């Protein structure tokens, strides 16, 4: 049987160790290549961080499996048992071009239920954490339950391309106080949990983009779903909404009526 407090503490140590490695690697040259298209970047640092977690799991938790962005996800077709869902660097374009606004994102799921979540903003040294049933924290300070802020007082996060793609979002552009796009899904979900944003909306995200953030946001009363309002499977690419309950309800209404 899993000792979740022990797993939480161990994975936290590994997240921070990965952050130290990333900061050290940034002092030297980084090898960058593209995957599906020229904007889908991967670096040797992404791959090394994922390999770091693979090796750690083999040694410490050999029955656990890893679903990672840089190759290991191909081996995962279900969430039976305990699965670590990892994005070694979420926001690789930011990492390469700006050296900020990227994060290590980790969600640990048991029989499909999110038990542990981490989002580590490496350059700000800001660590968002959650253990199911114990609340969510940022650098050890407990986060409050998300407030049902009205749309007119809300800051929402969405890629400009999605607004052009789905004209139903124009209502929110006109009515919300402001829009942002940070280029890291993990951080944007963390910001919803921390009350810095009221919602984050995306057309297409992979499980590793959102798994850690979903655990954190649920611990403070936020809602995560796909565009149809259904629960996510964390097995396939899907549309995604993270929001406080009031904005989530409004999004569902405007997107489907």
From TrEMBL:
Keywords: Hydrolase, Magnesium, Metal-binding. SUPFAM superfamilies: Carbohydrate phosphatase (SSF56655). InterPro entries: Inositol_monoP_metal-BS, Inositol_monophosphatase-like, Inositol_monophosphatase_CS. Its EC number is 3.1.3.25. It is an enzyme of class 3 (hydrolase). Pfam families: Inositol_P. It catalyses: a myo-inositol phosphate + H2O = myo-inositol + phosphate. This is inositol-phosphate phosphatase. It comes from Evansella alkalicola.
């Amino acid at each position: 049987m899993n000792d979740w407090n022990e797993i939480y503490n161990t994975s936290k140590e590994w997240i921070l160790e990965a952050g130290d490695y990333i900061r050290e690697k940034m002092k030297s040259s980084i090898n960058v290549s593209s995957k599906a298209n020229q904007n889908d970047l991967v670096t040797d640092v992404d791959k090394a961080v994922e390999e770091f977690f693979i090796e750690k799991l083999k040694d410490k938790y050999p029955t656990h499996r890893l679903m990672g962005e840089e190759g290991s996800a191909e081996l995962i077709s279900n969430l039976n048992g305990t699965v670590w869902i990892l994005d070694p660097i979420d926001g690789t374009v930011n990492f390469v071009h700006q050296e900020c606004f990227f994060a290590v994102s980790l969600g640990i799921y048991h029989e499909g239920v999110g038990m542990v979540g981490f989002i580590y903003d490496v350059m700000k040294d800001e660590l968002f954490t959650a253990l199911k049933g114990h609340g969510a924290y940022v650098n050890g300070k407990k986060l409050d339950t998300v407030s049902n802020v009205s749309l007119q007082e809300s800051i929402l996060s969405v890629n400009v391309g999605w607004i052009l793609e789905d004209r139903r979002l124009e209502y929110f552009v006109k009515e919300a106080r402001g829009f942002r796009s940070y280029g890291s899904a993990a951080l944007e979900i963390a910001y919803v949990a921390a009350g810095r944003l009221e919602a984050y909306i995306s057309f297409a995200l992979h499980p590793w983009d959102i798994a850690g953030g979903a655990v954190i946001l649920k611990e403070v009363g936020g809602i995560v779903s796909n565009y149809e309002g259904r629960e996510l499977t964390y097995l396939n690419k899907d549309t995604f909404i993270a929001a406080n309950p009031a904005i989530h309800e409004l999004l569902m209404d405007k997107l489907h009526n």
